[in-house]
# Entry
Amino acid sequence: MKKLTLKSVAEELGVSTATISNAFNKPNQLSRAKRLEILERCEELGYTGPNKAARSLRRGKTGIVGLVLANSISYTVNDAVASTFISGVSQCLETNGQQLLLVSGAGDDLNNVNDFVDGYLCYGSPTNPNLIDALSKTTKPVITVDFNIDGYPSVNIDNIEACYQLVKQTIRPDDVVAVIGLRLIETQLTCRIYDVPMIDPVTSISRRRLLGYEKAFAECGVDFNYGQLWSIPENIESFAVRAAKEVLSNQPRPTIVYCMSDLIAVYFIREAIEMGLSVPDDIRVVGFDGTNEGQRFHPNLTTVVQNSDSKGERAAIMLLKQSKESQLLPFALHFGDSCPTNG
Amino acid sequence: MKKLTLKSVAEELGVSTATISNAFNKPNQLSRAKRLEILERCEELGYTGPNKAARSLRRGKTGIVGLVLANSISYTVNDAVASTFISGVSQCLETNGQQLLLVSGAGDDLNNVNDFVDGYLCYGSPTNPNLIDALSKTTKPVITVDFNIDGYPSVNIDNIEACYQLVKQTIRPDDVVAVIGLRLIETQLTCRIYDVPMIDPVTSISRRRLLGYEKAFAECGVDFNYGQLWSIPENIESFAVRAAKEVLSNQPRPTIVYCMSDLIAVYFIREAIEMGLSVPDDIRVVGFDGTNEGQRFHPNLTTVVQNSDSKGERAAIMLLKQSKESQLLPFALHFGDSCPTNG
DNA sequence: TTGTGTTTCTTAATCAATTAACCTATTTAC
DNA sequence: GTAAATAGGTTAATTGATTAAGAAACACAA
# Structure
């Protein structure tokens, strides 16, 4: 059986390659009768249409969107918030006939994907700084989400404001505070942060959240310094539990803990209860994200509700429409049983 | 600025395109000195190497693997078991420098992806039967997981045997049985199955699990017919809760319920407890999958533990190595507090 | 009849690479 | 000293399409 290409099919049907191409791509460039005849004969031969790889070489468009993740793919798909984001992206892409290529945030460059994608969505700050560099150098359009690269439009919520409001409405003057953040410094360890340099607020969403907390602490006259700050490298059980144990064994024991994700908050509460403490009576716990898990949990979490789904959808739309305008999406505070409002 | 291509760079450096190509691809086809000189000058010019799209057109390899999912991407990434599978796949692909393209199981064909991928991993039976057809017609290699397509190697666990053993070790002679399955029939509704035709066991993992249950029921002399069988269309809370309510309100009330996923089991137990029932005293519940959630749950689940992670890894390796031999992975029974063994 | 416009199709350049085949020197073998 | 082998390149065909430009055929108006 001969290979089926535009050329071989054209020879078989006795017309030029341009005519076959037009039959598939530009209906009004040839007579209706001829077009139908060509399509019918192609179907008979088993030719399903022009090779998409060759087309993309010529046209410069592949119909594939690269989704660059902050972390490895394997980590990301198991993270509830990130999965919801991917959900939103994929829904938009599916309705627009675009394909989704997942790019690990641990990779060193974009060499193996750059020629296959029409543009990038970048969700969070890639673990590997070289990748940010590669993104800032590519000629393809880029939309960043939850972080920023100079010159590219982004989708964000106002993390500083969200955390500021959260503290303002939950803190009490005599509180002993602790904060558990996510990847505030470049390390693969759970650690307490004293006076070390942290990741830049421009690339680090956690750093911006910290700025929001700090602003409110200062305004409320609450003592907070870096000895009360912990950071975990990944948003998973093992690190969260380790951080919880350390925070809970610290003296004086905090009376309120601000966690930068609902997952951290849930495991923190679990540990606290296991120690015989009552939440919120002995210690109040605040999360971030507004996940289903956090709301199903007992006690259900006080948290910042953000819609990761629509974040993904918006970002995808922006990329497809080549929009240059950054978007700031709304958030909502939810006061659950893990920490009542101070009002 | 001139466009950077092999050709333009070759002209600039005064050598042939073949030499530039060889400098990047076949180091021993030219002298070390010349190669280093070329690479250096390319770096100066900002040429990062041959265009991957053009290369793939010529070579017929893209370095991209298509992962065809049983359901939509947006549903799949939020499913714990499927996410773990993707995890395993991506880990293997990352270490082998391959890219991952996600393909929705709801799509109608593979036209927009087929020319961009070197092969397919297919996880579960796609929602759209046309897609199975497209897979069976593609000339690219295919590995199926948790289901079968004639002529392609697959990765499976022995679902029939697992379910058979599970029933054998949990059932009691006087039990009233109920089974809650996943997508046993082609519908988007939660429904009780009487005597309707179900999806073929070859494509349906749930149907094979049912065969295992039934074999053990028959051997143990336990009454089971299709009035005691329910099916939900997606492995999510809303459908699971609805099915749980229906099963729990059925008379006579079942004394043991076999759920085809841990998620179904968890929501079933939640509903049962909400009704004032005790698990396992009033009703015993059995899951499937061995998820973390199921083990963290109170009471923790009696279930079949399968390693989705390594399923993904194995499948990916098979695709990359062009292996033709199907693999049957091991499973393990776990007896938790939701249903004690009858031994 | 001639000129103009439209429809319908073809020719050939182009997209950015890879690679088999070929050509020169220079080494090596005997 | 001659033949064979090797190293280090180049030439040109090929991969499978798209598309600008051109040509042939026909209709219609002046």
Q: What stands out?
A: The two ends of chain A are 78 Å apart (CA to CA). Chain A touches chain B at residues 48-49, 51-54, 56-57, 62-64, 72-75, 77-78, 80, 83-84, 86-88, 90-91, 94, 97, 99-104, 106-107, 111-116, 237, 292 (CB under 8 Å). The mean pLDDT of chain A is 96. The first helix of chain A runs from residue 6 to 13.
